[in-house]
Amino acid sequence: MQLISKEAELFEFLKRSTYPDLVKARNQMSRWDCYSPSTRHRVELKCRKTHYETLLIERKKYQALVDTCEAHFDIPIYICSTPSGIFAYNLLCVSPEWEVNRRNPATTQFANGARVEKEVAYLHTNLSIKL
Fold this sequence. Notes:
The structure is a single chain. By secondary structure, the protein is of the alpha+beta class. It has helices at residues 6-17, 59-72; strands at 23-24, 34-36, 41-47, 54-58, 75-82, 85-90, 99-105, 115-124, 129-130. The chain has a single domain (6-130), classed as 3-Layer(aba) Sandwich (Trna Endonuclease, Chain: A, domain 1). Helices cover 20% and strands 38% of the residues. A hairpin with a 4-residue loop joins strand 2 and strand 3.
């Protein structure tokens, strides 16, 4: 039996509760995870093991999502689950303040534990819709 990743569980929750027409990105390495044709929401999913009042988003992922949405007239959505809930951000309605963070793992779901410098922003949960 194949193990289900947390992002896969979040996808299934969103499909049942919010986006019945949600489909996964065709390319597993895409800068976005899923898409709702009826709402034109292109969605990046993240699962965090710890809850913070501000949730991290990488500038590279943010910019790739926003650029793709601009090209297709879609709405960029960032959805992050934590032990305290599921938080959705319309990225057209937030103004991230970018900073360099040197403590980030190179990847979050793979075995590479190397630390790298990333440009990130912290989105306060009060700017989100709690799902």
